[in-house]
């Protein structure tokens, strides 16, 4: 079949006479187009017998709505998640980042993949890459169960690391330029394994951490200080791949990136996030909205009596002073205080003469710090607002 003509713009896009069809017949009105029924039967009845003529703006609206989707699809676009829909097994949509493609693993899927893929969605970009590598390296696998030094003769193989071990690649000087190894950490019980090389670097480091489930292709680069270099990796959220599970991270966006969760005090499933459950056995993330993080005292004595993840209310260090009433019961002396005093509703100057002032004829003294410092509903330092997120697997 020949490639059809391209629709460069939705039909009637600039027409003032278009009416996008509402969902129901009742919302559309008598004789009008709806998504559920299309043009109703009354538009088939002759006008002289009480029928209703189809409307131009209804037709333009229907053509415009349908061709919007055609233009979107022929331009290579995918659809964002929509809570009004239920996705069947195999359906592909894109996350709110507009980049990461995910595929539903179940029928009638109600879960929002932007909240975490869990067991009902998978990142198909990573899966496609893994399958492509599997085809290229089929039948050439090396299974590693302990610390292993690979040889130049094993170049081009698929290396499957199944234990918490160190895998050492051969020196780049001993293999042809562009030689590759694909290394996968297939151990579900260890978060990272280590990859290094003889006489060189891996990924720009002397050793490279490889997380559980991660798969990376290394290529030999003889350039000085290069060694084995990363040419591809399977994780769709590679920017966060070096960050450990569950560690709070300040994030400037309202929606967390793929593979991360907001830290808003929510419960999570150990089945969906088994590694996160090891960090937070309560299966509840801390609620860090509007909170500062403080280092745990751990016996130092600066902030004693605290346990890890315990919450602490705000406070201000106590300020003390004294007031002296003279023998004639009319003279007040204010001592050892700061700020501005008011007497009977009238402000006085800050205390002078070593903190003493003579205040006559009043029994009551009121103190208000707002006359000299910024005040608010809480005690706080200067700050910038971020969302706290964490990696979740």
UniProtKB/TrEMBL annotation:
Residues 246-293 form the Phage tail collar domain. Coiled coil: none annotated. Signal peptide: none annotated. Pfam families: Collar. InterPro entries: Phage_tail_collar_dom, Phage_tail_collar_dom_sf, Phage_Tail_Fiber_Structural. Residues 1-21 are annotated as: Disordered. This is Tail fiber protein. It comes from Metapseudomonas resinovorans (Pseudomonas resinovorans). The lineage of its organism: Bacteria, Pseudomonadati, Pseudomonadota, Gammaproteobacteria, Pseudomonadales.
